[in-house]
Amino acid sequence: MTALSVVVLASAGIGHAVLSGLDADITRVDAFKDMKNRPRAGHGMNVLLVGTDGRDRISGAERRRFRLGGAPCHCTDTMMIVHISADRERASVVSLPRDSYAVTPAHTDRTTGKPHHGHPLKLNAAYAEGGPQLTIRTVESMTQVKIDHYLEVDFTSFMRTVDVLGGVEICTSRPLKDSYTGLDLPPGTHRLMGGQALQYVRSRHLDGASDLSRMRRQQRFMAATIDRATSSGILLNPMKFRDVTRAVLGSVRADKGFGTDELLALGRAMRNFSPSSSEFTTVPIGTMGYAVKGVGSTLKWDPAAARRLFTALREDKPLAAAGPRRPAPAVRVPVDPREIRVQVENGTRTPGLGRRVDKALAATGFRTTGTPVNAAAPAVERTVVAYDPRWDRSAKSLAAALPGSELRAVAGQGATLKVIAGADFRQVRPVRPEEPAQQPGAVVRGDEVVCGKP
């Protein structure tokens, strides 16, 4: 992400004299060697930006402090397609979930030497099997978007770049605490330095959204990084820009065609780049928890919505052209309804009430089972939301959609919440998450997610 920030924010006034010798710091990879049957090139430029583990390059003290224990996985932790428009006035960033269901093209496993004629896996596993080449080929096969350049950044580069920038400001409306990464932020505005910023973008256990909410935070952080660099004048200072660039390029891998000339040309063209000229989204998901034998639980893309998104990318159109923005509901809730699984029970003797409640909740975005049942003890007067205490935030979000409902904690119930529709049920109230762009497929501009914006 910080590599992208340097790429898109390179100042027009900085020339070869400042960047002299920095090109040699980039580790090169022949990412496109012998590739055939590739998608047709579109307009603009597409960069596949990959974040890798790289914890073996971080000191033991830093690994302990920022909860980076364990052996390096040599896998992709983050993957994005960054599209720079042909007129260099817009950047569109599409996050590709690491657990996306994918089928590899034919290849040879670089670890075992075993030939594969294409098999299902999670998208981030393509890197382990075939490195950058197989990763690019798999992404191109899934999106039909031709990748022009490849950039790979590890933890070390990320931390150092944020530190050189003097930290990046993020804001949160609720506490963010993850015992796995050690992230612990109270509500409010915070300036994060390298290690803490890494905790922020890596955390996956803040709520039930896992990777989807993590990608939202990564997108927000990228917008905040762009905002920091453009508003502070850091990249107009040749020496400071050199320091930022050296911090990135020292631990970056890139294809052979991406060098200083490309960086400078892009920087000159994008000297007026700002958060308002960037937009972010995640590939629309059709099936959450799509089980694949030998692979596990994956995320299966929505084929029609994904096709519209990548068509817009190929045709160099704003991502919002791929579909309408989500309407703004009335009530904000802590968890996106699309991440809340709900079983509806009819707690009355009124025929069809369960189906009516199930449909109304589904229309508002909740992941209902679609098969309401009758409660064991009907004649419930007040609607009840039964939930496992571990999913209390999801329960509050569901209860907000059912005015007057009663929250009832049930230990051991699990991740699926239960609605027992009572005689008091009248309607489902529309709700929306506290932070924009949590649901896959929603599109936001960078200036909509930096601090100080609604």
Report what the structure shows.
With 454 residues, this protein is an alpha/beta fold. The protein has two domains: 2-326 and 442-448, LCP protein (Aminopeptidase, 3-Layer(aba) Sandwich); 332-433, Alpha-Beta Plaits. Helix content is 29%, strand content 24%. The protein contains twelve helices and 26 strands. An eight-stranded mixed β-sheet has the order 1-14-9-2-3-4-15-26, with helices on both faces. Strands 19, 20, 21, 22, 23 and 24 form a six-stranded mixed β-sheet that branches. Residues 1-15 have low confidence and may be disordered. Belongs to the LytR/CpsA/Psr (LCP) family.
Strand-helix topology:
Layout: H1 2-9, H2 16-19, E1 27-29, E2 45-52, H3 60-65, E3 76-84, E4 91-95, E5 101-103, E6 107-108, E7 115-116, E8 120-122, H4 125-143, E9 149-154, H5 155-164, E10 168-172, E11 176-178, E12 183-185, E13 188-192, H6 194-202, H7 211-232, H8 238-249, E14 252-255, H9 260-269, E15 278-282, E16 285-292, E17 296-301, H10 303-314, E18 331-333, E19 341-346, H11 353-364, E20 367-368, E21 373-374, E22 384-387, H12 392-400, E23 406-409, E24 417-421, E25 431-433, E26 444-445
Parallel strand pairs: 1-14, 2-9, 4-15, 18-25, 19-20, 19-21, 19-24, 22-23
Antiparallel strand pairs: 2-3, 3-4, 5-8, 6-7, 9-14, 10-13, 11-12, 15-26, 16-17, 22-24
Helix pairs in contact: 1-7, 5-6, 5-8, 6-7
